[in-house]
Write a structure and sequence with these properties.
The chain has about 130 residues and is an alpha+beta fold. The protein contains five helices and five strands. Strands 1-4-5 form a three-stranded antiparallel sheet. A hairpin with a 5-residue loop joins β4 and β5. It is globular.
Length: about 130
């Protein structure tokens, strides 16, 4: 498992808001998937990708962690299969998902990726309603 110093460094370089940093680490320390997600973050493989900072920041809110965890797991599986053109949190119009086909105004894609042939792979995570 990466050291706390290594993880903090990756989080700082990922664009995560400073106030979210310690809360995300505390939440991950208390979550069953924490170790797995810490290793994904510490790898740095998604640093600088569109929307990644938003996903990591979502880990600072315990009630919203499950969506961020699933986004990172899905992206990690895609990356492990050789797909590196990955984006997170596509929430607006104008992203090309196929040649000549663009997202529209009410788009809500949590993870979007393209394989080497240009095929688009998408994931939308939906949280269960809060009671």
């Amino acid at each position: 498992m990466p050291s706390a110093t290594t993880l903090r460094g990756q989080l700082r370089r990922s664009g995560v808001k400073p106030d979210d940093l310690e809360r995300a680490l505390a939440n991950l320390a208390n979550d069953q998937a924490g170790r797995e997600i810490v290793e994904i973050i510490a790898s740095g493989k998604f640093r600088g990708l569109l929307g990644y900072d938003q996903v990591v920041s979502s880990l600072s809110r315990a009630d919203d962690m499950s969506g961020g965890i699933e986004q990172l797991r899905f992206a990690d599986r895609l990356h492990a299969s050789g797909i590196t053109d990955i984006s997170f949190e596509i929430k607006q119009a104008g992203h090309e998902i196929k040649p000549g086909i663009f997202t529209e105004m009410k788009t809500d894609l949590d993870v979007m990726a393209r394989d080497a042939s240009g095929k688009c792979i998408q994931l939308a995570v939906h949280e269960p309603p809060r009671r």
